[in-house]
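Design a sequence for this backbone.
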């Protein structure tokens, strides 16, 4: 079973790195897949998938807005 993303990429549930939704703990569904850091991640429904995408977007925006080098923060 597979899903086609907005970008036109086809994702296959057999390639998912997980069997249960990271938000709900329920089994993943073929219509609720996304690609994250080069890997296919599954969710139990499109709502959980979209929550994940929104969370990632917020983290990316926060990281992009913070131009202080990590070494200056003692995080090297």
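Sequence:
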């Amino acid at each position: 079973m597979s899903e086609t993303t907005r970008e036109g990429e086809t994702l296959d549930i057999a390639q998912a790195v997980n069997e249960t939704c990271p938000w709900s703990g329920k089994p993943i569904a073929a219509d609720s897949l996304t690609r994250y850091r080069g890997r296919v991640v599954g969710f139990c429904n499109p709502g959980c998938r979209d929550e994940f995408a929104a969370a990632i977007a917020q983290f990316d925006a926060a990281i992009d807005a913070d131009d202080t080098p990590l070494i200056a923060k003692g995080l090297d």
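DSSP finds one helix and four strands in the chain.
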